[in-house]
Amino acid sequence: MKRQGLGLLRALLVLLGVAALCSHLSLHRHRQRTGKEGQVLHRSKRGWVWNQFFVIEEYTGPDPVLVGRLHSDVDSGTGYIKYILSGEGAGTIFVIDDKTGNIHATKTLDREEQAQYTLTAQAVDRDTNKPLEPPSEFIVKVQDINDNPPEFLHGPYYARVPEMSNVGTSVMQVTATDADDPTYGNSARLVYSILQGQPYFSVEPQTGIIRTALPNMDREARQEYDVVIQAKDMGGHMGGLSGTTEVKITLTDVNDNPPKFTESVYPMSVSEDKVPGEEVGRLKAKDPDLGDNGLVNYRLIDGDGLSMFELSTDSETREAVIKLKKMVDYETKRMYTLKVEGSNPHIDPQFIAWGPYKDEATIKISVKDADEPPVFVAPSYTFEVEENAPEGTPVGRVHAKDTDVANNPVRYMIPRYTDVEQFFSVNAEDGMITTTRPLDREAQLWHNISVSATEIGTCAFSHTHTHTHVIETVSAVDKDEMAHRQHFTFSLAPEVAHNHNFSLKDNRDSTASIYVLRKGFSRLTQDVYYLPIEINDNGFPALSSTNTLTIRVCSCDSKDTILSCNVEPYVLPAGLSTGALIAILACIVILLAIVVLFVALRRQKKEPLIVFEEEDIRENIITYDDEGGGEEDTEAFDIATLQNPDGANGFLPRKDIKPELQYPLRPGMGPTAANSVDVDDFIKSRIAEADSDPTAPPYDSIQIYGYEGRGSLAGSLSSLESVTTESDLDYDYLQSWGPRFKKLADLYGTKDCSIDDADDGEDS
């Protein structure tokens, strides 16, 4: 069907070209027009004039397509006119029949590569090539077909639209291009549609604008959408070509969610020994919005603990932090209630009706009892005593009491480091301070000592003087005589001003209180702390000095009684757990077993081998047929090859007696005198014989010969005679060697005699 359509279109174009030509020719035939009445007008003659021809693109027929036909008025059909074609594509794409003037396209044309071609035609004399008419220019236009699909040049696309947008909110516009001719037919007329992304989004068919299609799309429920848009040419009708692109649409956040506490009531607790500024607890309201839309501000709005607690916000975690504002007392009040509010600081007016954008929660804080140290009734004590008063003179009495519910009795003591020379003592029961020796005013006018009060039955809590966390009160002495006008101020030295262990409070009465900021001091970690204190007087000019307060960590006995605050050696516990002891014992047993086994093996190696009666003793004997280095010589040859090869056949001749039969000699192996043959030639000849002997063992071996070298003064030491020797050996001399060789003499002598007797019997 497609091929037929192209053929009809080509025929139509050819007919259009011919019609244009005929119409033009008819104009040439009517060369005369009537002008004014009775007057004939003449004009110059022109052979041809035409505007343009058309040829369809992408033609793939078997024959060249006819573009059109040229014909001149001077052509009478006799064949003397020759048509010539020049210009773009002449001779390669377009060819002309020089006789008929028919123009054909020889190649497939693509309008998207070149939409038209400009050519020049001329009629010349075939014989002389002289122009018969001036050249004429014409245009061949390539007619478009729908051979290019739409394309999205900038895809994939990314777009953002606020959540909760109204229906029809514009998201973005996508545009496709079509390389076909937009001025011809519907090949480049595009229509947009949505293939994926419904029912959330829609697209305008003519413009490609994407819009929201559903209301109240919530980012917290779904944030991203993948949309597929299609562009189709031919006005979207069947048969049109199409192209698609992807659009990723992200919903941006708006403040459409109020903050919400996860609990309605938050229980917290605080110990009464906590100091102001310490954290009590945290809570957080959740807001699913992002960025500034999800920020939550907190504040305390009600409760009986507003004066005791304060609230701040952690800038990193965005949590509400409840801190202690004032110290609490378990004996006074044991429960506090707070109401906290969390609200959004940034509210979108578009969604204000969805509010309120805040939430409330209740905090219940319970106070925990702490075993507090005793508290002195007075912050400081000043006593006077006459100089040279006898030992035991009362100076004054201090009094402290336990503020806990238990109201434990109090024991008093003077830390030795505050009264190094021990001028005073204190009654542990009633706090009465007495002298231990007469005092000299001229030697020392003031004595500053500290008295420690400790609850009986506990070592953890002791108190010096006044406040719950006061451990010492210090004062100063100035040798200048300023009477009652003398005044001192105290402060921590700059290098320890921000330490986390101790603080100082100037009492504005020429004394200062030293506070402990934490608990859990351990002598194992650190037993002495040094606290530099700067003291200023009110003289002119003002003078100052820095003194160091030494603070020692005291030790207690098993009954929690304070023993000493002096430096003492510490003995670390060296006890081991039951599991560790068992593991150590197991290792010791294993080591002992290994040692015993090793010793037993060493002893077993030294004992001789036990020979059982049923075993053949010859199994432990390796026989050699040589007189070399013996069984210790294992480097020069293979021991296995030296064993008697006859044993493989089951015949094991005795080596301790002379054999009855002698094996026949091989050819060429007769005895050779040692003094007549060179050793080297002798060995070479034996090697050659062994190599050529088919009865030789099938393995490499050392040939053993009864030759002991040339010029030896000693005879053979072997008790065995060479198989090549025919003489008999006489062993009678063994009888003369004594009782130790009797067994050997009987063995060889008897055997030989019996053999000789047998031989004599045969001879006789």
Describe, in plain words, how this protein is organized in 3D:
With 764 residues, the chain is an alpha+beta fold. 13% of the residues lie in helices and 28% in strands. The protein is built from five helices and 41 strands. Strands 3-9-8-5 form a four-stranded mixed sheet. A four-stranded mixed sheet has the order 10-16-15-12, with no helix packed on it. The longest helix is centred in the C-terminal third of the chain and has 29 residues, at 578-606. The model is unreliable at 1-49, 458-467, 570-574, 609-618, 645-675, 721-727 and 751-764 (pLDDT under 50).
What's the short story on this structure?
Keywords: Calcium, Cell adhesion, Cell junction, Cell membrane, Glycoprotein, Membrane, Metal-binding, Repeat, Signal, Transmembrane, Transmembrane helix. This protein is α+β, with helices and mostly antiparallel strands and 764 residues long.
- Provide the low-confidence segments as ranges: 1-49, 458-467, 570-574, 609-618, 645-675, 721-727, 751-764
Radius of gyration over alpha carbons?
64 Å
Distance between the termini: 136 Å
Total helical segments: 5
Structural class: alpha+beta
Beta content:
25-35%
Shape: flat
Biggest sheet details: 4 strands, mixed
Reading side by side through the largest sheet, how are the strands ordered? Answer: 3-9-8-5
Helix content: 10-25%
* Count of strand segments: 41
Overall mean confidence score, pLDDT: 77
